Amino acid sequence: MTDSDPMPEHASDQPGYTPVFPDAVRTAIYVLGLIASITGLGFMCFVHPEIGGFISTAAGALTAGFGVAYNPVRLAGK
């Protein structure tokens, strides 16, 4: 990342960085993590806070483990 280019080097099309998981897998994990996080919030608010906290934490750990993150700067070049 430089001052003039806000995109990190690993997100650009420069050779040297290859994601471990293909785009389809990362997208599926992102969507599942988003659904699990919303479900966990619902459990925390309306059913069992302990279970909701576990679901939300597990969703975050799962998506982080796959290296999935929403970053609109990465989408700018697509």
UniProtKB/TrEMBL annotation:
The keyword Transmembrane applies. The chain crosses the membrane at residues 27-47, 54-73. Keywords: Membrane, Transmembrane, Transmembrane helix. It comes from the Bacteria. This is DoxX. It comes from Bifidobacterium favimelis.
